[in-house]
Write a structure and sequence with these properties.
With 125 residues, this protein is mainly α. It has 7 helices and no strands. It has 2 domains: 87 residues; 38 residues, no CATH class. It binds zinc ion.
Length: 125
């Protein structure tokens, strides 16, 4: 049985495209997004490895067990490197207020609009 591998393999490069398209948007925000930009590239690499793994399992006519074993290895690496790969926070690091989607996904400083404005004005003085 390789139904799961076959299903993942048939997705082809779509998962990769879904991960990479938001990555193109990082240009707009410049250097203050460097860490999260890298994180989304790591995620793309992980997605690429998972789809490649599924394709190899299907091609070699192996069972889903091989896919699961490979998947566990990839997930373990993701967990070990989670600080780099998932640097997201839902709350402001300064006031614990909730963050907007743009800040959560793009901005490295994890500051809410108010705290960022405050920090910018402090830096400007
Ligand atoms: Zn704040």
């Amino acid at each position: 049985m390789n139904t799961v591998s076959l299903w993942v393999a048939e997705l082809g490069i779509w998962p990769l495209i879904v991960v990479l398209v938001p990555n193109l948007m990082f240009r707009r925000f410049g250097q203050s997004t460097a860490e999260k930009r890298k994180a989304s590239l790591y995620q793309a690499i992980a997605v690429f490895l998972i789809t490649t793994l599924a394709a190899s399992v299907v091609k070699s006519e192996l069972t889903d067990i091989y896919f699961y074993v490979g998947l566990v290895v990839i997930l373990l690496v993701l967990i070990i490197l989670r600080g780099k790969i998932f640097p997201y926070r839902l709350n402001c690091v300064s006031c614990e207020g909730s963050l907007d989607i743009k800040t959560i996904y793009f901005m490295d400083n994890n500051l809410c609009v108010d705290c960022r404005a405050k920090k910018d004005s402090d830096a400007g003085e």
